[in-house]
Amino acid sequence: MKSAIEELESKGRAAKAAAHRLANLSTDIKNKALQNISRLLITNKGEILAANKIDYQEAEASGMSAAMLDRLMLDESRLEAMAQDMLTIAALPDPVGEIFEMRTQPNGLQIGKKRVPLGVIGAIYESRPNVTVDISALCLKSGNAVILRGGKEAVRSSGALTGVVREAAVSAGIPDGAVQFLENTDRSLVDHMLKMSHVIDLIIPRGGAGLIKSVTENARMPVVSGGIGVCHTFVDASADVDQAVAIAYNAKVQRPTVCNALDTLLVHSRIAGRFLPMVAAEWAKAGVEIHGDKSVIGILETQSGLNLVPATEEDWGKEFLSLVAAIKVVNSLDEALEHIERYGSGHSEAILTEGYQAAMRFVNEVDAACVYVNASTRFTDGSQFGLGAEVGISTQKMHARGPLGLKELTTYKWIIFGSGQVRS
Fold first, then answer.
1. Residue 175 carries which DSSP code?
2. How far, in Å, CA of 142 to CA of 204, rounded?
3. What is the pTM assigned to this prediction?
């Protein structure tokens, strides 16, 4: 019987062999695989949801937080959304084989670039079973094989979903071995996986700060990491108050357990007296706990029905992942920019303003993967950006930034066409 490490190495070799064939498959075959996945997600929903129910019940009994339970849970509507994402990805242009930046040198050489897959992607993620399907689909469409290592709390759900993906892919003509899943949840396998630079071309960790830090520090191959989202929204003095209330409500309440939800609201002092009572009243309807600075407390302390507590230093730069938000009153755009620079995570930041100059300063000066003007940060999502899905959201600057879609899972090779040229 193979040991767990031997089995991992065997799966790695199978993925490597599949990647060579997958890189040259036609777009039609890859799209057929995605269409098959979409169909089988629905026809196999009973098996998938049954597996997820067991995972959910065990996680709940173990004391998993509400935020993580929300990420773990699957239902029919989420499966239907995943199925639709498969069709969206299938409809997107295939980046593989694109030739770009071609030019002719004075000596007649034609030089340019051709887009190619990365090879084998290693994905290490926590208890979000939908990630299993998103990453698999994007890897298949971009011509990459993938080795999936999901969180132990979702191992049954992810295993059932991987089975659907494999069946759908192989029946379309994708080489067997292109999608590998590690059923064994032993942590030592992750440590070994991070050493497999002979097989894995890129590692993508998707989860909490501890996971990302561990992978980044220990991987022997390139890593694209991110996803920790300390997201600010700055309400400028010129903001449309009604619009600002609606955006702040959506950014905090629509789905508070995800990385692009609002964490800190920065409010210009000239608009705070009008805006804060309105947004606090709306947030109160959803049960949002407000951690406010002294100015916020002074404005809101007599307003009934609020869950209001004084903010501490620990509230600034904190990703709450729950119905909790920090609010700070600032006296200028400069002060808002300084706060974001100090406490932001480089994920998603927003300004709500009617002033063009303020908007452009914010866009130009904020150092983040996604910068918004008059919109909710909840749109930082591969599907919402028209990418079909994402393998994660990178807060790095190399080689990709923001939602990672098809093109971000490719690289390029230089191609040179000559007619007998030699170098003198």
1. P
2. 15
3. 0.90
Q: Which helix (H) or strand (E) holds 221?
A: none
**CB of 145 closer than 8 Å to CB of 22:** yes
Give the C-alpha separation, 162 to 178, whole Å: 11
CB of 405 within 8 A of CB of 138? yes
* CATH fold for the domain made of 231-379: Aldehyde Dehydrogenase; Chain A, domain 2 (3.40.309)
217 and 251 Cβ atoms separated by less than 8 Å: no
**231-379 matches 4-224+404-417 in CATH topology:** no
Measured CA to CA, the distance from residue 130 to residue 128 in angstroms comes to: 6
Domain-by-domain residue ranges, the chain? 4-224+404-417, 231-379
Opening angle at CA 412, ends 22 and 19, nearest 5: 20
Continuous segment of H or E residues that includes residue 393: strand 393-394
Render pLDDT for 116-155 as a digit per residue (tens, 0 to 9): 999 999 999 988 899 999 999 999 999 999 999 999 999 9
Class of the 4-224+404-417 domain? Answer: alpha beta
Encode pLDDT of 229-286 as tens digits: 999 999 999 999 999 999 999 999 999 988 999 999 999 999 999 999 999 999 999 9
Q: Collect all residues with Cβ–Cβ distance below 8 Å to 32 and sequence separation of at least 6.
A: 172, 173
* DSSP string covering 31-67: HHHHHHHHHHHHHTHHHHHHHHHHHHHHHHHTT--HH
Structure confidence by residue, pLDDT tens digits, 388-419: 888 889 998 888 899 999 999 999 999 999 99
Give the Cα separation of 113 and 66 in Å (integer).
47
Pick the closest to residue 97 from 387, 413, 401, 408 (CA basis): 413
What is the Cα–Cα distance from 128 to 393, expressed in whole angstroms?
14
Helix axes 45-61, 155-172, angle to 10 degrees: 160
